[in-house]
Design a protein that fits this description.
The structure holds three protein chains of three kinds. The longest helix of chain A has 15 residues. By secondary structure, chain A is an alpha/beta fold. Chain A has two domains: 179 residues, Rossmann fold, CATH 3.40.50.970; 128 residues, 3-Layer(aba) Sandwich (Rossmann fold), CATH 3.40.50. Chain A has twelve helices and 14 strands. The radius of gyration of chain B is 19 Å and the shape is globular. In chain B, helix 7 links the parallel strand 4 and strand 5. Chain B is α/β, with parallel strands linked by helices. Chain B has one domain: Thiamin diphosphate (ThDP)-binding fold, Pyr/PP domains (Rossmann fold), CATH 3.40.50.970. By secondary structure, chain C is of the alpha/beta class. Chain C has two domains: 179 residues, Thiamin diphosphate (ThDP)-binding fold, Pyr/PP domains (Rossmann fold); 129 residues, Rossmann fold, CATH 3.40.50.920. In chain C, helix 8 links the parallel strand 10 and strand 11. The chains are: A alpha/beta, B alpha/beta, C alpha/beta. Chains in contact: A-B, A-C, B-C.
Chain lengths: 323, 339, 328
C-alpha cells in the first residue's frame, strides 16, 4: 500500500469531499497550522476558490456563521486553527451548535465539522497549547473525533462530513509529518469503533491523538523489557467504544490512561472513572493517569516537558501498575 | 399608514395581530397560576412583527430572540402547539425540550431561538452565507432587541455580512426608546453609548432604515426594500423599528397592567380608561392599526369584534388543548441529543 | 441560632466585605437593581454607583474588564447572571483570568470573584440551567466554589473575595430561598475544605451543591433500612479536599458521587479517578457516579425531573454498591 503523511491524507480527504459533495464548503485555512505542509491546503483552495471562505479574525462570528449555514443544507468544514482560540467562539459551540438539534426536537440539524489543532506543540505556552476536548465532552450534542494516524484522519473525516451531527475534529500538529499507509480506494471509518493499535497482555493503555503515538513508542521499549502493552485508541470519544476498553482491561487487569488534557476533569479522568466503575472487578491495581499537570502550559522547553505526558512517564506508570 | 396591500391582506394582518395580542394575554393569565419559567411577551410590537414577516416566502428563515412568540405566530405557527411547548407538554413543537426560550418550527422557517443575547446574529448571518454559496434564492432575517447590539457577536456578524454582501436582514426591534439603563425594579434597557443605533451600522456600509415600529405601512415598506436588496444580490440591510415599551413589559415578569385589550377603544374613545390613557389612546400599535383600517373603510367595527371573539375563543381552546396534553414521557429527556 | 436564607448570606457577605475593603467593586448586568434574584440588593444604597456598577450585556468584555481591574488594584466581584452566559466570556476567563498569574511569572495577581447562578429549576431550558463546574475545574488557575448552606454561602463568598485568585462562585438557583443557620460572628471557612454533613459508617455519599440535599434525603431513607451513609459536601471543587473524601472512603469502603452536571466529563469523573487511585485496596465496590444524562437541559418541567437525579437514583446507586461482591 502507498504511504502518505498525515497532512497529505487529511488534505486528500478534504479534496475528495469537495469533489464528491457540493454541499461541502470550507471556512478557514489553518488545517495544517503553520507547518511546512500548509501549502497543501493552499493548493486545495486554489483548485476550489468558490468553495473556500477566508473569514475575518472573528472566531465567534464565523463559527456561528458556519452553524447558521449548516442549517440551510450546507455542510461547512470550519477551521478554528489553534484550539485555544476556540474559547472566543465558546458560546456558539456549546450553547448554539450543541443544543440546537435537541432544543428543536430534531427539526433543525447542524451537519458541520469544526477543526482545531490541540495540544502542546512546542513553545505554544499558555494561550496556544490547549486540549479542550474534555470540556467539549462535558457538553452533550456533538461528536468528537481525535485521530492518531494518516489512515484514521482521512477515514474519520469522511464519516464526520456525512453525518447530520456537528463534529469536533481535533488534530495534533506533531502528527502532521507522520507517515502511514493509506489505501487508494475510498473508505470511511465508522464513529464509535476503537482500534487496537497494538495487542498485548500485561497492561492496557487507552489514549487518543498524539498520545497514541507516544504510547506506541513507550510500548516498543517496554516490550524489550518483556512487558506486553495493549494500546486501545477509541478514535472518537463521542460516541465512545466503551466495550473495547472494558474488554481489553478484562484481559490485562491493568490500565494506564495517557491523555494530553489537564488532569482535573480531563478526558483521562472520564476514561478512568468509566473503567473504575464498570471493570472494577478485573482491576489488579489502581488505574494510573499520565496526563498534563494542572498548570497553564509553560513556555520554557524543560518546563513544558515537565508538565506534559512523556514517553518516560508512560513507561514509569506502566511499571507502577504492574508492581 | 397602512401597508400597500389589498384590503384582504391588510385584514389578514389584523387577524394575526389580534392572535398575538390575545395569545400573550392568555399566557400572562396562565402564568399567574403556574410556574412556566421566565417568558417574554410581544405586546406592543405586533405591528412590527406581523407586517415584517408577512413578506417572507416559504424557504426564508427567521432567527429570533427571547421575545419570540409574536414572530412565530405571525408566520402561522399554531397557538395550541406553542402553548403546549411553553407548558412543556409533549404536543409542543419540540416535545418540551425547548420551551418559550427556544421555540422552533422549521415548517414555518424558524430553525431555533437563541435565548443568549446576541446568540443568533452569527446564525442568521450564516444562514445567509449558506443561501448565497449554495445558490439558493432565500433570505435570512435576524430579529433581535437593542440589547444584542451590546454583544461582540453583532459586530463580528455585520462585518462578515457586509463584506460578503449576504442576503440577510437585521431587524432590530428597539423597545428601549424612552429609557436608557436600568430603572429600579424594571426590565433592563439599552446600555449603549450610541444614542442612535444606526450609528453602529454605518461604518460597515450596510444600508440602514429607521422606522416607527408601530407604523405597519412603514414596516412593510422597509422590509420590502430590504427583501428586494437581499434577493437581488445587494446584500444586507439594517432596520431599526422603534416601539414604545408596553407598560406590562416593564417588570421582570410581564403583567397585564393595562388589562385585557378592548379593541372597541379604537373607535370609541369614551371606553379609554384614565389609567394608561397615553398607551391606549396613542401608543398601542394594534389600536392604531385598527383606526387606520376603519378610516379606509375596510371593515365595520362589529366585524372586528366578531374577529376578536373568534380569535379569543381559539386562544382559550388552544390553552385548554395545552393544559389537557400530557407531559412527555420523562425518559424522552435523553433522546435527540444527536441526529 | 438564628436562621437566614442562602440569598441573604450572599448579600450579607457582599455588604460586609465592601465595608471592610474599599477596593471591592461589584459589577454586572443589573446589579444596582439587585440582579434577577436580589443578591445585590441594597449595595448601591450603601456604597453608591461608583462601587456598584451596571454593565452592558457584553460578557466577553465585562469578564475582561474585571480581569483588567483586578490586576490594577481593585477587587472586583462580577455577577454573571446565569453561568451559561459565561460561555461568551470564556476566552477572557480561560486564556486570561486563569493564566495571567502564571504567564507573568507571578508578577500579576487576579483577585477576582465571579458569582454565577447555575442549576436546573423552573423550566429555564438549555441556555439558563447548566452546571458547568467541570469546565472551570479543568482550567488550571481557577478556583471553583459551590456552597450548599446559607452560612457557607456567606463564609465562602467572603473567603473567595479575599482570595488573590480568580474564583468561580457557583450559586444554585434552587438554593436561594432555602433556610439554614446563620454564620456565627467571626466564623470563617477556608477555600478547599470539605465538610461531613452527616456521619455514617456504611457508605460515603458525596454531593455537589444542591445535590448535598439530595444526598442527605437519600441518607435519611437509607437509615430507615439500616444503612448509615456518611454525606460529604466538598464545598470547594478546585482545589478539592481529597483527604476528607479519601479518609471517609477508607472507613466505609463505598463511594457514590452525586451531581447535577452531565455525568460524562463531570467533576464526579475526577473524584472517582482520584479515589480509585488513593483508596484502591479499601474500596469494597466500584465508585458509582450519579449525574445528569448526556443531554442538554430540557425545558419541560416533566423532563427536568428526569434530567436531575433525585434521592431514588442515589439510593439505587448505594444499593448497587453495597450489593457488589469484590472478588479478591
Amino acid at each position: 500500500m502507498r504511504t502518505l503523511t498525515y497532512g497529505q491524507a487529511m488534505v486528500e480527504g478534504l479534496r475528495e469531499l469537495l469533489e464528491s459533495d457540493d454541499r461541502i464548503h470550507i471556512m478557514g485555512q489553518y488545517f495544517l497550522g503553520l507547518t511546512p505542509q500548509r501549502a497543501l491546503v493552499g493548493e486545495l483552495a486554489a483548485e476550489h476558490p468558490d468553495r473556500f471562505y477566508y473569514p475575518p479574525i472573528a472566531e465567534l462570528g464565523y463559527l456561528g456563521t458556519a452553524i447558521g449555514a449548516a442549517m440551510t443544507g450546507m455542510r461547512p468544514i470550519v477551521d478554528l486553527a489553534t484550539a485555544s482560540f476556540m474559547f472566543q467562539a465558546w458560546a456558539q459551540i456549546t450553547e448554539e451548535m450543541a443544543n440546537i438539534h435537541y432544543m428543536s426536537d430534531g427539526q433543525t440539524k447542524v451537519p458541520m465539522v469544526f477543526h482545531f489543532n490541540h495540544g502542546i506543540r512546542g513553545g505554544g505556552a499558555a494561550q496556544h497549547s490547549h486540549s479542550p476536548q474534555a470540556m467539549l465532552w462535558n457538553t452533550p450534542g456533538m461528536e468528537i473525533m481525535l485521530p492518531s494516524t494518516p489512515y484514521d484522519v482521512k477515514g474519520l473525516l469522511k464519516t464526520a462530513a456525512s453525518t447530520d451531527n456537528p463534529t469536533a475534529w481535533g488534530d495534533h500538529v506533531k502528527l502532521f509529518m507522520m507517515e502511514g499507509e493509506v489505501p487508494e480506494e475510498d473508505y470511511a471509518i465508522p464513529f464509535g469503533v476503537a482500534d487496537i493499535k497494538r495487542e498485548g497482555s500485561d497492561v492496557t493503555i487507552v489514549a487518543t491523538s498524539l498520545m497514541v503515538q507516544r504510547s506506541l513508542a513507550a510500548a516498543g521499549k517496554l516490550a524489550s523489557e518483556g512487558i506486553s502493552v495493549e494500546i486501545v485508541d477509541p478514535r472518537t470519544i463521542v460516541p465512545l467504544d466503551e466495550a473495547a476498553i472494558l474488554e481489553s482491561v478484562a484481559k490485562t487487569g491493568r490500565l494506564v490512561v495517557v491523555d494530553e488534557c489537564h488532569r482535573s476533569c480531563g478526558v483521562g479522568a472520564e476514561f478512568s472513572a468509566i473503567v473504575a466503575e464498570k471493570a472494577f472487578g478485573y482491576l489488579k491495581s489502581p488505574i494510573r493517569r499520565v496526563v498534563t499537570e494542572d498548570v497553564p502550559i509553560p513556555f520554557s522547553p524543560p518546563m513544558e516537558e515537565y508538565v506534559e505526558p512523556t514517553e518516560a512517564k508512560i513507561i514509569q506508570a506502566v511499571k507502577e501498575v504492574i508492581d | 399608514m397602512l401597508p400597500k396591500l389589498s384590503g384582504e391582506q391588510v385584514l389578514e394582518q389584523l387577524r394575526l395581530a389580534i392572535v398575538i395580542r390575545r395569545f400573550e394575554e392568555e399566557l400572562i393569565k396562565l402564568a399567574g397560576s403556574r410556574d412556566i419559567g421566565h417568558f417574554h411577551v410581544y405586546i406592543g410590537q405586533e405591528m412590527t412583527g406581523v407586517p415584517a414577516l408577512y413578506l417572507l416566502e416559504r424557504g426564508d428563515l427567521s432567527f429570533t430572540t427571547h421575545r419570540n412568540h409574536g414572530h412565530l405566530l405571525a408566520r402561522g405557527v399554531p397557538a395550541s402547539q406553542m402553548y403546549a411547548e411553553i407548558l412543556g407538554k409533549e404536543t409542543g413543537m419540540m416535545g418540551g425540550r425547548g420551551g418559550t426560550l427556544h421555540l422552533c418550527s422549521m415548517e414555518h422557517g424558524f430553525p431555533t431561538t437563541s435565548s443568549a443575547v446576541g446568540g443568533a446574529t452569527p446564525l442568521a448571518t450564516g444562514a445567509a452565507f449558506g443561501f448565497q454559496r449554495l445558490g439558493q434564492d432565500r433570505v435570512s432575517v435576524c430579529l433581535f432587541g437593542d440589547g444584542a447590539l451590546e454583544e461582540g457577536s453583532w459586530h463580528e456578524s455585520i462585518n462578515i455580512a457586509a463584506m460578503e454582501k449576504l442576503p440577510v436582514i437585521y431587524l432590530c426591534e428597539n423597545n428601549s426608546l424612552e429609557a436608557l439603563g436600568q430603572k429600579a425594579g424594571e426590565y433592563p434597557s439599552s446600555t449603549l453609548a450610541a444614542v442612535d443605533l444606526i450609528d453602529l451600522v454605518t461604518p460597515f456600509g450596510v444600508p440602514t432604515i429607521q422606522i416607527d415600529g408601530c407604523d405597519a405601512g412603514a414596516v412593510h415598506a422597509a422590509m420590502g426594500e430590504a427583501l428586494h436588496r437581499a434577493r437581488s444580490g445587494g446584500g444586507a440591510t439594517f432596520i431599526e423599528a422603534r416601539t414604545v415599551r408596553w407598560p406590562g413589559n416593564r417588570p421582570i415578569w410581564p403583567e397585564l397592567s393595562t388589562g385585557e385589550t378592548n379593541f372597541a377603544m379604537a373607535w370609541d374613545s369614551s371606553l379609554v380608561p384614565t389609567e394608561y390613557r397615553e398607551w391606549h389612546a396613542e401608543q398601542d400599535a394594534v389600536l392604531r392599526f385598527i383606526r387606520e383600517i376603519l378610516a379606509e373603510g375596510l371593515i365595520e367595527p362589529e366585524a372586528i369584534l366578531a374577529m376578536d371573539a373568534e380569535v379569543s375563543a381559539e386562544m382559550k381552546e388552544a390553552v385548554e388543548f395545552a393544559l389537557a396534553s400530557n407531559y412527555p414521557p420523562a425518559a424522552a429527556a435523553m433522546e435527540k441529543v444527536l441526529a | 441560632m438564628a436562621e437566614t436564607r442562602y440569598i441573604n448570606g450572599i448579600q450579607q457577605a457582599l455588604l460586609e466585605e465592601m465595608a471592610d475593603d474599599s477596593t471591592i467593586r461589584v459589577m454586572g448586568e443589573d446589579v444596582t437593581f439587585g440582579g434577577p434574584f436580589g443578591a445585590t440588593k441594597g449595595l448601591v444604597e450603601a456604597y453608591g454607583e461608583s462601587r456598584v456598577i451596571n454593565t452592558p450585556i457584553s460578557e466577553a468584555t465585562i469578564v475582561g474588564m474585571a480581569v483588567g481591574a483586578a490586576i490594577t488594584g481593585l477587587r472586583p466581584v462580577l455577577e454573571i447572571m446565569f453561568v451559561d452566559f459565561i460561555t461568551l466570556g470564556m476566552d477572557q476567563l480561560v486564556n486570561h483570568a486563569a493564566k495571567l498569574h502564571y504567564m507573568t511569572g507571578g508578577q500579576l495577581e487576579v483577585p477576582l470573584t465571579i458569582r454565577a447562578t447555575c442549576g436546573v429549576g423552573g423550566g429555564y431550558g438549555a441556555h439558563h440551567s447548566q452546571s458547568l463546574e467541570a469546565w472551570f475545574s479543568h482550567v488550571p488557575g481557577l478556583k471553583v466554589v459551590a456552597p450548599y448552606t446559607p452560612a457557607d454561602a456567606k463564609a465562602l463568598l467572603k473567603s473567595s473575595i479575599r482570595d488573590n485568585n480568580t474564583v468561580l462562585f457557583l450559586e444554585h438557583r434552587g438554593l436561594y430561598w432555602t433556610r439554614g443557620e446563620e454564620l456565627a460572628e467571626h466564623e470563617q471557612v477556608a477555600l478547599g475544605e470539605a465538610v461531613v454533613r452527616r456521619a455514617g459508617k456504611d457508605i460515603t455519599i458525596l454531593g455537589v451543591s444542591k445535590m448535598v440535599g439530595t444526598a442527605l434525603k437519600a441518607a435519611e431513607q437509607l437509615a430507615e433500612h439500616g444503612i448509615e451513609a456518611e454525606v460529604i459536601d466538598p464545598r470547594t471543587l478546585a482545589p478539592l479536599d481529597l483527604d476528607t473524601i479519601v479518609s471517609s472512603v477508607k472507613r466505609t469502603g463505598h463511594l457514590v458521587i452525586a451531581h447535577e452536571a452531565v455525568e460524562t466529563g463531570g467533576i464526579g469523573a475526577e473524584i472517582a479517578a482520584r479515589v480509585q487511585e488513593a483508596a484502591f485496596n479499601e474500596l469494597a465496590a466500584p465508585v458509582m457516579r450519579v449525574g445528569a444524562p448526556f443531554s442538554p437541559v430540557p425545558t419541560s418541567i416533566a423532563l427536568e425531573k428526569e434530567f436531575v437525579p433525585g434521592p431514588e437514583q442515589v439510593i439505587e446507586a448505594v444499593r448497587r454498591s453495597i450489593a457488589y461482591n469484590r472478588v479478591a
